Amino acid sequence: MSTTLDPVTLSVIQNGLQQVCAEMDLAFSRSAFSPVISETYDRSDGIYHRDGGALIAQGEDGLPVFVGTMQDCTAAVIERARANPRNRLEPGDVFIVNDPYLGGTHLMDVKFVKPFFYKGELFCWLANTGHWPDIGGAVPGGFSASATESEQEGLRLPPVKLYKAGVLDEEILSIILSNIRIADQRIGDIKAQAAALTVGERRLTGMLDRYGRDTVDDAIAELRRRAAQQMRAKIAAIPDGVYEGESVVDSDGVVDAPLFIRLTMTKRGEELFFDFSRSSPPCEGPMNSVIATTRSSVYLAIKHIFPDIPINAGTFEPLHVADPDGTFLYARYPRPVSGCAAEVSQRIAEAVFAAMTRAVPDLLFAAPAGTSGNFSLGGLDPQTGRGFVCYLISGGGYGGHPGGDGLSNGCSTIGISKTTPIEVIEQRYPILYEEYALREGSGGAGRTRGGFGVRYKVRLRRGKARASFVMDHGRVGPQGAVGGADGAPNTVLVERGGETYTPLHLSK
After folding, report:
1. CA torsion, points 232, 233, 237, 241, in degrees to nearest 10?
2. Fewer Cβ within 10 Å of end Cβ, the chain: N or C?
3. Which residues of 350-379 are buried (b: 16+ CB within 10 A; e: fewer)?
4. Looking at residue 87, what is its pLDDT?
5. For 214-225, how does the pLDDT look when each residue is reduced to its tens digit (9 = 90+)?
6. Cβ atoms of 102 and 337 closer than 8 Å
7. Alpha-carbon distance 347 to 478, whole Å?
8. Residue 325 neighbours by CB distance under 10 Å
9. Tens digits of per-residue pLDDT, 141-167?
10. Residue 287 burial (CB < 10 Å; 0-12/13-18/19+)?
11. Is the pLDDT of residue 447 over 90?
């Protein structure tokens, strides 16, 4: 640590960086048009290094799965900007990108990446991700369980400048809005997303004015070094050895057969190595995972186990994820990937939990519900004459642990996001909730049991709409640990024309 950087200043700067991200999160949520962002908090904001896009800080209320993917996406933007000499960076530039194969997740997670200048020099990058309720494609909401190529899932955007020197590019905007549903409602989310980055600029400028560029730079380097040191200390306490974990994806939505995630985890000294090469091959349907999401899923799983370690690029330096080429966990274009962030990521985390349970059972817990319960409903409301796309996620139980029973109706493994309030949904869309309750008995039995999931029933009140489901854990429930029973499987029932049926693929 620099001789001019005392521990108090280091701590203040650390918290200041996190506060910048927290204020970006808050500004984004409060000004966004879509309930999936404003109410559900399916978004994240962060600060990234000027050279390679390494994570510096992220808001505590941002989705954990975006930790790894946003730094990979920022790196892709930096590479694209450097490759084109005409693409000169200026204050006020904002890149838009949602390409899953360039450090992304699925197409609905749209990222804004902005170079931050301090006194005329590039200091870092600010970036955020917001889940847009629609990005085009075969079905409203983008979760097409029958998609067999990326184009069927929606509009794919490479890194392009949506804002140039602070001015919105109307031509690029018109291309985007011409290819998505409810386009007239997206401008509210776009401006909110850009405004959040402007808030980050102001707050970060204030911090640099107070402490100076060199001091903040030194603090960022020291915080990264310490995070890596803390993670290595945690890993050192795990017995050396090879540990295996496995989890199952119900199906890919096209072929009605399970997909297996098979992990071999090796702990050696102060490092952890993750090998998924024995997993199922690439699949036809949308349950392929891009490599950025696969890595990020490992990171968030380990962060669940060691929650007291601060999040920055150093946190993940001792974690080595081998590229699982040849499996469905390393998707390349044009493999469909809409289920990777919301569902496959949670199965990857579950495999990590299973392996770590064998290594350090006293620190672990049984598997959480592990599905976001993605449900999209889109159509035209005859009462208002306007189109709508409603996107819902649901909570689930967390696994029991040595200290007690699991949490009921908790958020998904990958996020801090929550279910949109029923009153908001019923006000905004032609939908009626006929039931919303805890699903009693759904937690796995054991000395300490798992938490309960939820059961809900929604009805379309008027008009016609198209529903799509991309969920999971319909074949087998979340894994119990150290002899505890599994949780209950997820179930989906559809009532139409007086008949009730279960989808062929159970959860898709």
Report:
1. 10
2. N
3. bbbbbbbbbbeeeebbbbbbbbbbbbbbbb
4. 76
5. 999 999 999 999
6. no
7. 9
8. 11
9. 999 999 999 999 999 999 999 999 999
10. buried
11. yes
Query: Distances in Å between the alpha carbon of 306 and those of 22, 89, 311?
Result: 21, 38, 11
Nearest to 121 by CA among 51, 219, 16: 51
Going by C-alpha positions, the residue among 375, 293, 292, 284 that lies closest to residue 336 is 284
Residue 86 has pLDDT above 80, yes or no: no
**pLDDT band for position 232 (cuts 50, 70, 90):** very high
Say if CB 33 and CB 183 are below 8 A apart. Answer: no
Task: Report the amino acid identity of residue 323.
Answer: D
β-sheet bridge partners, residue 122 = 117
DSSP 240-268: SEEEEEEEEE---SSS-S-EEEEEEEEEE
User: What residue type is 190 in one-letter code?
Assistant: I
- The 10s digit of each residue's pLDDT in 6-18 is 999 999 999 999 9
| Residue 14 is assigned to a structural domain of this protein | yes
- Is the per-residue pLDDT at 477 higher than 50? yes
Cis-peptide, bond into residue 334, ω within 30° of zero: yes
Q: For a pLDDT cut of 70, what percent of the chain falls above it?
A: 99
pTM value?
Answer: 0.96
Q: What b/e sequence results for 81-98 when a residue is b if at least 16 CB atoms lie within 10 Å of its CB, and e otherwise?
A: beeeeeeebeebbbbbbb
Residues in the chain: 508
Give the position of tokens 């096209």. 254
What mean pLDDT comes out for the span 78-90?
A: 88
The end-to-end CA distance of the chain, in Å, is 52
Residue 316 lies in a domain: no
Residue pointed to by tokens 């998707």? 331
Residue 233 to residue 184: CA distance in whole angstroms? 51
How many domains, in total, are found in the chain? 1
138, 155, 384, 473 from 152: Cα distances, Å:
5, 9, 29, 24
Please check the confidence at residue 493 and state whether its pLDDT lies above 90. Answer: yes
**Angstrom distances, CA of residue 201 to CA of 97, 117, 134, 219, 245:** 20, 8, 28, 18, 43
Q: Which residues contact 307 (CB under 8 A, 6 or more apart)?
A: none
Find the domain containing 69 and state its range. 7-226
pLDDT at 3: 47
Q: Cβ distance 406 to 381 under 8 Å?
A: no
Please report whether residue 109 resides in a domain: yes
Identify whether 355 is part of a domain: no
Q: Is the CB of residue 18 less than 8 Å from the CB of residue 101?
A: no
